[in-house]
Amino acid sequence: MARYFAYWLIFANLTAFVLMVVDKRRAENGDDRISENTLLGWAFFGGAAGTVLASRAVRHKTRKQPFAATMFVYLVLQLLLLALWLAGFLDPLAATALAYWRAAS
Q: What is the pTM of this model?
């Protein structure tokens, strides 16, 4: 399970990074843009680090509020959750939730 979680984080962060870079290029060219909801959605579902790194790398949406603040909050929360998971604090919660879900279905 941990392997799939790691794969998801890699995929989500790469996707979020690429979407931010593509949106920056579209903004420079005057083309149709990627919605902020899409960008923040990828950040929320595991791609916060990719979103923040891309915003710094290509200087995109760094001053746009509340977008920049939301990206940072998602990053802090995801790093906190990742640290708790790596420290083993979330394993009992995950096992309990999984057992409850299996019993309910």
A: 0.81
